[in-house]
Amino acid sequence: MFRTLSTMFLCSLSIVFGSLHMLASIPTSCAAPSKVSPQNCAASSISDHESSIAQPTSNRSTDSLAPLVARVAPIRADIKEKWMIGFWPTRVTPEDEKYYFQSGNLNKYLAYNLVSDLDRKPIKGKCNAGVYASALSYGGYRPDQLVVKVLRQVLIRDRIDDKAYGEAMALKLAGLYVTSGKEVLTRRNCFGITLSTSRPAIIMKKVEGMPVVKTPTWIRANNATRNKMVNDIKERINIQLMDLALEHRILFNDFHPGNIHVVLNKNGTLKEAKLLDYGYPGLVAIDPTTKKEVLEDYFERRWVEGWPRYEEN
Which positions carry the signal peptide feature in this UniProt record (predicted)? Predict the structure, then answer.
């Protein structure tokens, strides 16, 4: 009996300390909304200076005219512009909370973790727990037309992080959103009691194509042809970016080659180029008075950083 009581006591201690360790290990920006700057939650492909734009200390408000209070973190002068307000969304309304992440348990839709076209590694990040092929149809879409993205945030009391709302909202604006809910994680403790936690999950339309650098046409092309392909892609992406910025005051700030999928015609010319990955920290809220020419200038400068021009013979 003494041995049984000792075992139960040790088991209880392990649960308590295990829970404390789990909570302590959750990044503050990936867990419940926090006033701490979420730099540690940036995607691995984003440099530190890009993930340190002014972040609102409080995004939730029932007052549509509530002022935005931002805490400015040190950032590179050539990245941060005066017309950048902070990471998008600057607020989440009660209507947003009622609309998004209401589809319950989405576990049955998770087939297998997709891999990156660039390095063939599973698609995951510091805020992204995995992008999965869909196992089932949904909303009139076949499984091969869908992907499911699970965010790494562990929900505490079912509290969804504003950045998760932001990604779902941006996908809807881009015409890619289908529905959203949660991935439910369960385990049994040493008493045989089932414990469960959950993470936000979004079902979205699959963006066809692949990064241009992985296409046979690009691999065979000379530098002059590659420069023309890049210019064609740039024109298409500029239109999408400006539509989002001018109509919704959101700047897509993460248009490196891995975040753009292209579809080529049989003759190798560009048929389609589309932005993908609307997750944090790729979206920036901009001042409503920002003019198009200012945004165009910023786009030109940022494009060169990710898409250098090839020297032609």
Answer: 1-18
